[in-house]
Amino acid sequence: MSRSTPNAAMNCLGPGGRREFLRMGLAGFASLSLPGLLRLRTQRSLQAAETTSREKTAVIMVWQPGGFSHIDSYDPKPNAGSEYAGPFSNIDTAVPGLQFSELMPRHAQLAQKFTVLRSMQQKAGGHPAGSMQLLSGDPDTRDKPKPRYPDWMTVANYLRSKEGPRQTPLPAYCGINPPLEYNGPAYLGDAYSPFTVHGDPNSPTFSVPNIGLSDSGEVRRLGRRSTLRQKLDTLERTFDQQGELSALDEFETQAMTLLTNSKTKEAFDLSREDPRVRDRYGRNAWGQQLLLARRLVEAGVEVMTTSLSGPLCGRVQNWDDHAVNHNVFEAMRFRAEVYDQAVTALIEDIYDRGLDKRVLVVVTGEFGRTPRISYAPSTGAGNASAPAGTTQPGRDHWPRAFSNIWAGGGIETGRFIGATDKRGEDAVQRICGPGDFLATIYHHLGIDSSKTLIKDFNGRPTPIVDHGQPIPELT
Fold this sequence. Notes:
With about 475 residues, this protein is an alpha/beta fold. It contains 14 helices and 18 strands.
């Protein structure tokens, strides 16, 4: 079956259980082997010689789960009428002709450091399908319980793993409260899922368990006990037809390194940051998540994802601003200051630290919100929501047009791409779809999506992007 992204996108020119294993604190290292590391390095020595000479690029994706209102942020429509326009005024930005909602003054001041893509669209109106369309290129508009195709983060991790041994103790792919609810590795297997960190990095009790062990006796015991797997290794590989054990070798190597290398703990330790930098990002969950993301890519992580969700979003803890969930305008106002500060601090920091050529920052959700305002009774009181039964305004799912922002990555910034109609209902200029979104990210990571195939569950070569190409203004 052919993979394809929405037809409109053509207008743009431009194996298992790893996640749970890590979440349980890497306790299963009693049965892991180290010989796999030696085999893996021997097999890839030639490839490594080619890849160590160039600096690895990286991507930080900041995810807005639930769908971000483009009308009340990066693509305001003040003349659309009271049924569409919200209560917020527009403000000029540092880019002539570009205006944002008044909720984002820091974005307005920093607009020269990023580019706004205002003409994204996809075809799925549900959160699962919408997320799968944008992050994996799955054209299916039906919501599914699990993804059919691997998301771009897993694909990039898989492809980078074929380049040779890593020159850093950190994994290639990390997630801080990452967007995993509707996405994942699919047929690539969990060995290529992220090293996942959960919790609030701003909490005084925040820690990442079982990294950088300092007890040398414990490290030696792990090595001795790992010979159990070694004794079974030859027999297992006799039946390994799909190379799954090689992937497991790589996973074991990565996990063992996380346990035994002291530098891994340093990368995750926010107390090593200048307090003024921490203040700059904001002393809250979102600000410290994005600061930790910057620390990790600077230390060698190549694929970094984090979701802006939880209490800072409002009562239902995401951006899904239906009227039954939130008063959309109170929700946007409730989260705006923290969002505005955290995202702009990340972008500014990428440039200040000279990471802007190597690190690409992408901020997006799965879709936008309806330009037309809807009204319904609240289902409960809380932050950004009136008491149950109170009629309040909301905006619903809207995949036909939405915005995202791009920074770093060596791209030309200080501009906006594409446009929506006068009410923000449809993308009408420079329309871009999921295939273009994915191809652009792969391009930055040095992956030619037009030529790259990966075998699916049936052994069938499957393109990582179908019907899409890098967006020229973002390459």
